[in-house]
Specification:
With 515 residues, the chain is an all-alpha fold. It has 24 helices and 2 strands.
């Protein structure tokens, strides 16, 4: 009992935990820098000649005068440019209008009142998994929306937050739709393959079969774990009495609001869909035509659509909420609309503080180079001679899974791994496309376990927002919620890889497992 009370007394607020992690990172970087820790790994230096060279990564000590100078001069700019910050604030404007006008509650009531709890959970998780086609934006959309959906369904919002984050992180590397991230990684895969076979080619549908199966299996697994384990372990959520007394029956007035919102939303969608279809009169103006794949034309850094995507989605939400409010008489004048615009931003102060310290921690950790050093050291394990086919599959999966904890960025990881992994596995008769799938499955298994993932702070902030305990939510407990998902997904995806390889089925259209 005394031990338990002591543990409760020393529970750190997430902000203080981030401060501890920042200080620990600075000190560790100083120690590793003093030891001169560095790692060499092979990379392809020339895209034309495909010559391989040795790259060097080393730990950059921040436990120094120059390190302190970096921290003090970049902290503010890193916070201001931290993508989750601006994306969340802008998206919350749209969500606020949908929530306050009653649009969300009416839609959720209509869609879910006759559905089983597991069905609603599965639908949310499935959407989260496949939404990676939109990049990282779904993190700032689905986490807040999932919490509201579960509240409207008279369920603990923690369930929605935890399950949606698990689905979003798992969807990082598994999607039967070809994403912009897949496109970047495919380039590295082809470079690695061309060192042994310059004529090797891959398409956007080379992974579709195995990815489709993975999406379905992972979505089912997350749903089962959520309903049968996570939901049972969470403390009871106490709803306000006024909310419990509200009638969930949808009235004619609310249906009229839905009709108004549907018509306005449809017109808005048709306009923007037309703007991203190439080849039609006055269409395609939002695309980046310097790219090859359509998904890159949409979501490349120079694409007008990509640069304005957050605003496009926010305006869609505002239009839905506004026209619903006009039809349902919940928005009667401009003051009502302006109040609704700021509704979701009420009480967002601590979220901003969390984002500040999270952005600082991530920036400092990146600057130290510790993640790259760990990833390069893990990649070199693939050079161990005399490994068989199945040990190589397992080893690459484990390397990808472990490396993701220290270096969540998929593109950076594959830049380090591809030059070693693709040729090594090709020598073992494993096809480059299957090697890429192994890598993607591995990072999907552990993405939810790292606080270095930029959008983890959104997950943390919303758990804190709906925390009804007097104690602050513990940062490590938020990660602990994700451990069951990670363990089950790891075993499931690794088993899928091995079984698929043994059977020898194609992993996609013109995508094979062995060469």
């Amino acid at each position: 009992m005394k031990k338990r009370n002591l543990k409760e007394r020393i529970t750190l607020d997430p902000i203080m935990t981030l401060v501890v992690l920042i200080v620990a990172t600075i000190v560790i970087s100083g120690f590793l820098g003093l030891l001169g820790v560095q790692v060499n790994y092979p990379t392809i230096a020339d895209d034309v000649t495909l010559q391989t060279t040795e790259s060097l990564v080393s730990v950059n000590s921040l436990f120094s005068l120059s390190g302190l100078k970096y921290i003090f001069t970049t902290t503010v700019s890193n916070f201001v440019s931290f993508t989750p910050l601006s994306s969340l604030i802008i998206i919350l404007i749209g969500i606020g209008v949908m929530e306050k006008s009653g649009f969300l509650k009416t839609v959720v009531t209509l869609l879910t009142k006759k559905l089983k709890k597991k069905t609603v959970t599965f639908a949310i998780v499935l959407f989260c998994v496949i939404s990676s086609i939109m990049g990282y934006l779904p993190y700032v959309i689905m986490i807040p929306l999932s919490a509201l959906i579960f509240i409207y369904g008279r369920r603990n919002p923690y369930i929605g937050i935890i399950a949606s984050y698990a689905g979003l992180c798992a969807g990082t590397g598994i999607n039967f739709l070809f994403t912009s991230s897949d496109s970047e990684i495919l380039k590295g895969t082809l470079l690695g393959a061309h060192t042994l076979n310059p004529a090797y080619s891959l398409g956007t549908t080379s992974f579709i079969f195995i990815m489709l199966i993975a999406v379905i299996l992972v979505s089912i697994a997350i749903t089962v774990i959520t309903e049968n384990y996570i939901a049972e372990k969470l403390p009871k959520y106490e709803f306000p009495e006024t909310e419990l007394e509200e009638d969930l029956i949808v009235t004619n007035k609310q249906l009229k609001g839905l009709v108004f919102a549907s018509i306005a939303g449809l017109i808005y969608l048709i306009f923007f869909i037309y703007c991203i279809i190439p080849g039609l009169p006055l269409s395609g103006a939002l695309l980046d035509y310097s790219q090859t794949f359509y998904i890159d034309k949409l979501f490349s850094a120079d694409s007008f659509f990509s640069q304005g995507f957050v605003f496009v989605v926010t305006m869609f939400f505002v239009i839905l909420g506004l026209f619903y409010g006009i039809g349902a008489k919940t928005i009667k004048n401009n003051k009502d609309l302006c109040d609704d615009l700021g509704h979701s931003l009420d009480g967002v102060g601590k979220t901003l503080v969390l984002i500040f310290f999270a952005s600082t921690f991530i920036s400092i950790f990146k600057k130290t180079g510790i993640g790259e050093v760990i990833m390069a050291a893990l990649a070199n394990l693939l050079n161990i001679s005399n490994l068989g086919t199945f040990p190589l599959i397992i080893l690459l999966f484990v390397i990808s899974a472990l490396g993701t904890i220290f270096l969540p960025n998929s593109h950076f990881k594959w830049l380090i791994l591809a030059g070693i992994a693709v040729p090594t596995l090709m020598d073992a008769s494993i096809a480059p496309e299957f090697t890429q799938v192994i890598f993607r499955f591995g990072e999907s298994a552990t993405m939810a376990l790292t606080p270095l993932m930029a959008y983890y702070v959104i997950y943390l902030a919303y758990l804190e927002k709906y925390n009804q305990n007097e104690k602050p939510i513990n940062l490590f407990k938020t990660i602990k919620y994700q451990v069951p998902y990670s363990l089950v997904i790891s075993v499931m995806l690794l088993a899928l890889l091995i079984i698929w390889f043994i059977i020898g089925l194609p992993i996609g259209i013109k995508g094979v497992v062995s060469i």
